[in-house]
Write a structure and sequence with these properties.
Length: 474
């Protein structure tokens, strides 16, 4: 088929030029200013940073795998299993894939749409229906909405920002689960140490009961001494049962985090606590750049801002270029004949004149959503700063408390030894022994509690300052 040149009248050419300049002028008025991250005042240093020594400030940077600072191979292995097996992470991966598909869908609107059709009909013509007519047709059509006002590109920008937010949500969830696993693991190891401590206490109290019963038989001790020894033993045995229950539930929690049934998971006991590492300081600006939850909140601001442009573009007409061509004939052999070709080509403008305020409401909604996203972003930053400040002071104070509890335990054990010897010599009553035993066990349990809390605080602090995410564009 030969190209056919169609002469365009001068008046039509002038009208097209005026229309193009009018459209360009309107698009300049409708475009949004370039997006800028919401302003947020961040202090130059943490308030509680002074609690940490200068040596700690010079420590190496926190690695991506921050839990390795605890030097526990079992914890390292559990963290590897967590990423592969946790069901919540699998759900967020699927959510990320949904966001990626939404981005691909929005990008498709920038491309032309091409379709094809074919039909074949047979019918009668005339009053008596004696004339039979065949009708065959094949055709193609194409349409392309020009993104003059930025409506389509705005939708793409919003979908891309939402995809980035979904990716950061995944990173934030992974980081949170890693911290939860580390803290649960530390608590589990703490219960193991506490179990050994209580088992030793039960053994010691059984010997004390036997000693008291022998002294009672010999007429040296009273029945009250025997009752006190029995009470001490039974109370400690009850504590032992309780701590074993706690150990089992913590082990079940670790199994579920790994995506495994609790019945098929067990962790060999070590009765050793990991050593909490020194924590290097990080500036708040570095914190903001590293934390994925903050990045996700900022990306949602960008997505909301892009939707404002989409809402504003609805006030302007949609410019669409369309083309179609159809071959129609009564016989298949005539379909390729040039006289049977029908075609059309041209632009079209579509503008909603009255919608009862729907477009104004959509823009107002987009503005309000953006204000909400900005507030959430700023609150996320403030919460992040608070978390770091809290755990800086908690970890530092618990380190001091640990040292004091160690001294208290040493003194309590020394006092127990002296009082036990005095009781055997008949200088003091058994009540003094019970009090000394209770004090020593209580101080030992307090020391374990402080050590566990410090491990949890350091793990939380490392999680708060060590979050990383992939910054590559999707």
């Amino acid at each position: 088929m030969n190209d056919i040149a169609i002469p365009v009248p001068a008046a039509d050419r002038g009208l097209r030029v005026v229309l193009v300049f009018l459209m360009l002028g309107l698009s300049a008025c409708s475009s949004l200013a370039p997006y800028q991250k919401p302003a947020m005042e961040v202090p130059p240093a943490f308030r509680e940073a002074g609690l940490w020594s200068a040596a700690k400030e010079q420590a190496d940077q926190v690695p991506d795998e921050w839990w390795k600072l605890f030097n526990d191979p079992t914890l390292d292995q559990l963290q590897t299993e967590l990423v592969l097996g946790n069901e919540n992470l699998k759900s967020l991966v699927a959510q990320y894939q949904v966001a990626r598909a939404a981005l691909d869908f929005s990008r498709s609107a920038l491309s032309p749409t091409v379709g094809a059709s074919a039909s074949a009909t047979r019918g009668t013509n005339g009053v008596n229906g004696s004339s039979v007519i065949n009708s065959l047709s094949v055709g193609a059509n194409a349409s392309w909405e020009l993104d003059v006002w930025g409506r389509l590109s705005g939708g793409v920008n919003a979908a891309q920002a939402s995809l980035q937010a979904s990716r950061d949500d995944l990173a934030a969830a992974r980081l949170s689960l890693q911290a939860t696993l580390a803290q649960t693991y530390f608590s589990l190891r703490t219960t193991e140490v506490a179990t050994v401590s209580l088992e030793n206490a039960v053994t010691a109290y059984q010997r004390s009961l036997e000693l008291t019963q022998n002294r009672f038989v010999a007429g040296v001790a009273s029945s009250a001494d025997v009752a006190q020894a029995q009470t001490q033993l039974k109370s400690t045995q009850a504590q032992l049962i309780e701590i074993r229950n706690t150990k089992s539930t913590l082990e079940h929690a670790v199994a579920v985090l790994l995506g495994r049934p609790p019945s098929s998971f067990s962790l060999p006991a070590t009765a050793n606590l990991p050593i909490a590492p020194d924590v290097p300081l990080q500036l708040p600006a570095t914190l903001i750049e590293r934390r994925p939850d903050i990045a996700a909140a900022e990306r949602r601001v960008a997505a909301a801002y892009a939707r404002i442009g989409v809402a504003r573009a609805a006030f302007f007409p949609a410019l669409t270029l369309s083309a179609s061509a159809t071959q129609a004939a009564a016989n298949i052999g005539d379909l390729v004949s040039a006289p049977n070709l029908f075609w059309s080509l041209g632009p079209s403008l579509a503008l909603t004149v009255f919608d009862g305020g729907a477009r104004q409401a959509a823009e107002a909604s987009a503005q309000a959503s953006t204000a909400q996203a900005v507030a959430v972003y700023r609150q996320t930053v403030l919460t992040a700063l608070q978390e770091v400040e809290d755990n800086l002071v908690i970890a530092a104070r618990l380190e001091e408390e640990t040292a004091i509890q160690v001294e208290a335990l040493t003194a309590a054990r020394k006092a127990l030894e002296v009082i036990t010897n005095q009781y055997q010599a008949g200088i003091v009553s058994y009540l003094n022994v019970v009090i000394a035993q209770t004090t020593a066990l209580s101080v030992e349990r307090n020391l374990l509690d402080v050590q566990n809390r410090r491990l949890l605080a350091v793990a939380q602090l490392l999680k708060n300052i060590a979050g990383r995410w992939d910054t590559a564009e999707p």
